[in-house]
């Protein structure tokens, strides 16, 4: 692999302008095509084989399109000045309903002046609009158009807001200032690291090209597969981080070689042959970790995994082709436009080298202290609270949260996430008055936690019955999931009871995640360790690296629990507590974490943490092969990579922290978890824990049984390319990072 990458890097350096033009054209074409032909997005959280999915499928059979997903839109009408049944207000509501009936695809409009349609204080009413033949992928636009049709009610002084049955994670996530903030922060770190503007811009430019290319591919794939709405933001977040980091690692080595007098093209060749191999392996671990999400049994999560992997592939490709091309085109001008009062100091001979020596002299004390600190950081993870998000956790003042609060006030907290009970009957019934249907409705109503059961509706075949059930609990309340399980447990002769709806779907998702999590974790750890074994031919190093990554994950989950589950800091990341909350409730505002988020976070973090492990181990291995002194090799490896890894980590942390500003709770969760994990991984773990353990293990680090050494392919990530001696150049330029 070293020879292949070396030839590729040399060719790209010699034909830099061609490679640069091809990448720009490809990125522009892919991104432009996805913008001109935007693909539909879908947050279909269905899980094949679950009870909620069976209920959803039965809803499509003879109950009318209004009961299918996206077939119903609800508008809440609120009168602050008095009851809605006042003549003038009632007339305004009815005028709005007449306009709604004239809207395209509207099949039925149910008046709020019906049983169950108006609150007990008569000030909050619910207009239900059943749709047919509309584009369910454009439900947000359809809802806004229907809301606009209710303007006569607004003209009469009434408040009208559309109720939203989705979750905050279902909202359309659009790019915004977070990307710009992240890029600016990354640029500042690079300027301080390199001391020159030209060198600082190269990783940014390469990352932007890779992100544009990846997003273009993802956008076009949306025409052939269901693409989650979070796909673009996840790909951007991860793509920016790894794209800048990979280019940074290559650029730092290239500048050191230039400073030693190596000609430009030869320097690029050596850089791609060595550091390029580390980039390929590091990217491979991220892709393996994300691909393992296909085993989770949750299509939405699996799609998010491989879609994010596309951005990582794009980052690796641009790093080993576009970056060498840019370095070849720029030549020694890579060090142009020096920033006054800043100069990038070499990575060797810095404080990191001194730290490496210090750790090597007292490994046991460093190991114990690091373990205690990491244990303290991970301890809050025991309080991690998984659950479902509802609009009660949406942005304060947003239309969706206002509708949620009105719905809860007027019709009870459970009205924001009603259960859809669909029962298969043993024989055909004529109508909803059949004794078996009536018996089923009574059994459902008697379940603890059920507040209201709608009138049963029998499908056209007479073999299924549907009831809408409102519980006493908000969708995010754990007790709502218990009601789902209790209703499913109803036993009537020949009747099969299924429960669907948002709460039931999320309950099934949580159960599936709990069932598949051990499998996914096992596969990720095993395959990542195997990849490291292929890279370094050292079983102990491979196993140790996997364990260290799990340690950094503990710190990340501890931070998530502290911020979201315990609630200390949830307000700082933009989570708004209810208006009526007390001071203590505001300070400790607990927010549940979606059940699938920890597994996704595990895959992403495990892969990203392995990046720094690969780069550190590569440097240690190279030093060990030169002189065979393990303690000295560890100190030299830490000294030569510490500054680079720290700069890379700062960039990733800056990018991830910037994304916390997004209103979407899922994005906030990822931003906090990724930022904390990367910060801990690049400092405590790579700076102290890993060097200490490697010093203690001694020659065992690189031990490999002879039988295993014979069967392992020689992939050589360390970069043992033949390096011809090059005379020193008089115009030697001092390296930056």
UniProtKB/TrEMBL annotation:
Where is it located? Answer: Cell membrane
Domain named SSD: residues: 200-329
Keyword Protease in annotation? no
Q: Which Pfam families match?
A: MMPL (PF03176)
Q: What is its main location?
A: membrane
Q: Mind telling me which GO cellular component terms the entry cites?
A: plasma membrane
**Which InterPro entries does the UniProt entry name for this protein?**
MMPL_dom (IPR004869), Mycobact_MmpL (IPR050545), SSD (IPR000731)
Q: How would you describe this protein's topology in the membrane?
A: Multi-pass membrane protein
Q: What are the UniProt keywords, alphabetically? A: Cell membrane, Membrane, Transmembrane, Transmembrane helix
- PANTHER family linked: MEMBRANE PROTEIN MJ1562-RELATED, MEMBRANE PROTEIN YDFJ
Give the transmembrane ranges.
180-198, 205-225, 231-251, 272-298, 304-330, 366-384, 519-538, 550-575, 595-620, 641-662, 674-697
Its name, as the record gives it, is MMPL family transporter
């Amino acid at each position: 692999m070293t020879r292949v990458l070396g030839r590729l890097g040399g060719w790209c350096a010699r034909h830099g302008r061609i490679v640069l033009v091809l990448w720009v054209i490809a990125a522009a074409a892919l991104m432009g095509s996805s913008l001109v032909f935007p693909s539909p997005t879908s947050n279909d959280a269905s899980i094949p084989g679950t009870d909620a999915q069976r209920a959803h499928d039965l809803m499509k059979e003879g109950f009318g399109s209004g009961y299918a997903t996206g077939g119903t839109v609800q508008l809440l009408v609120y009168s602050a000045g008095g009851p809605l049944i006042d003549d003038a207000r009632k007339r305004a509501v009815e005028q709005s309903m007449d306009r709604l009936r004239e809207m395209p695809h509207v099949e039925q409009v149910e008046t709020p002046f019906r049983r169950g349609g108006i609150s007990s204080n008569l000030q909050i009413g619910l207009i239900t609009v059943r749709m047919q033949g509309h584009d369910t992928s454009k439900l947000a636009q359809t809802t806004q158009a229907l809301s606009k049709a209710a303007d006569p009610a607004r003209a009469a002084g009434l408040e009208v807001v559309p109720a939203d049955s989705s979750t905050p994670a279902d909202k359309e996530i659009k790019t915004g200032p977070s990307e710009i903030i992240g890029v600016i922060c990354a640029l500042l770190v690079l300027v301080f690291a390199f001391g020159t503007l030209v060198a600082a811009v190269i990783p940014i430019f390469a990352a932007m090209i890779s992100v544009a290319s990846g997003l273009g591919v993802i956008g076009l794939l949306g025409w052939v597969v269901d693409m989650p709405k979070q796909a673009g933001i996840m790909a951007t977040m991860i793509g920016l981080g790894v794209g800048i980091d990979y280019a940074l690692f290559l650029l730092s080595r290239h500048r050191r070689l230039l400073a030693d007098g190596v000609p430009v093209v030869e320097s690029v060749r050596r850089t791609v042959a060595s550091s390029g191999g580390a980039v390929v392996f590091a990217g491979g671990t991220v892709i393996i970790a994300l691909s393992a999400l296909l085993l989770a049994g949750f299509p939405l999560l699996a799609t998010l995994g491989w879609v994010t992997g596309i951005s990582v592939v794009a980052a690796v490709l641009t790093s080993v082709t576009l970056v060498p091309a840019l370095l070849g085109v720029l030549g020694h001008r890579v060090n142009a436009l020096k920033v006054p009062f800043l100069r990038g100091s070499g990575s060797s001979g810095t404080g990191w080298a001194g730290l490496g020596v210090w750790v090597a002299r007292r490994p046991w004390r460093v190991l114990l202290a690091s373990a205690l600190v990491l244990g303290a950081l991970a301890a809050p993870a025991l309080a991690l609270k998984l659950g479902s998000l509802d609009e009660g956790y949406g942005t304060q003042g947003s239309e969706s949260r206002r509708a949620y609060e009105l719905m809860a006030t007027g019709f009870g907290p459970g009205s924001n996430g009603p259960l859809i009970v669909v029962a298969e009957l043993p024989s055909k019934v004529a109508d909803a008055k059949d004794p078996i249907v009536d018996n089923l409705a009574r059994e459902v109503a008697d379940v603890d936690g059920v507040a209201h059961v709608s009138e049963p509706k029998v499908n056209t075949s007479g073999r299924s019955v549907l009831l809408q059930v409102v519980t006493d609990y908000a969708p995010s309340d754990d007790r709502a999931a218990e009601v789902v399980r209790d209703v499913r447990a109803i036993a009537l002769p020949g009747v099969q009871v299924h429960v669907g709806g948002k709460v039931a779907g999320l309950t099934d998702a949580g159960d599936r995640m709990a069932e598949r999590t051990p499998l996914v974790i096992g596969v990720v750890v095993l395959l990542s360790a195997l990849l490291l074994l292929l890279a370094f031919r050292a079983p102990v190093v491979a196993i140790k690296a996997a364990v260290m990554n799990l340690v950094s994950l503990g710190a990340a989950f501890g931070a998530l629990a502290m911020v979201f589950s315990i609630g200390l800091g949830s307000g700082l990341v933009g989570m708004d507590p209810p208006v009526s909350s007390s001071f203590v409730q505001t300070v400790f505002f607990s927010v549940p974490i979606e059940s699938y988020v920890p597994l996704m976070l595990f895959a992403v973090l495990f892969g990203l943490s392995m990046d720094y492990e690969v780069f550190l181990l590569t440097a240690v291995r190279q030093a060990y092969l030169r002189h065979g002194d393990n303690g000295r090799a560890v100190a030299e490896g830490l000294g030569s990579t510490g500054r680079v890894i720290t700069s890379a980590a700062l960039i990733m942390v800056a990018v991830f922290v910037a994304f916390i500003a997004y209103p979407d709770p899922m994005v906030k969760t990822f931003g906090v978890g990724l930022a904390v994990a990367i910060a801990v991984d690049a400092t405590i773990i790579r700076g102290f824990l890993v060097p200490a353990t490697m010093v203690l293990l001694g020659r065992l680090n690189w031990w490999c049984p002879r039988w295993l050494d014979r069967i392992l392919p020689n992939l050589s990530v360390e970069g043992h390319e033949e390096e011809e001696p090059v005379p020193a150049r008089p115009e030697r330029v001092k390296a930056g990072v």
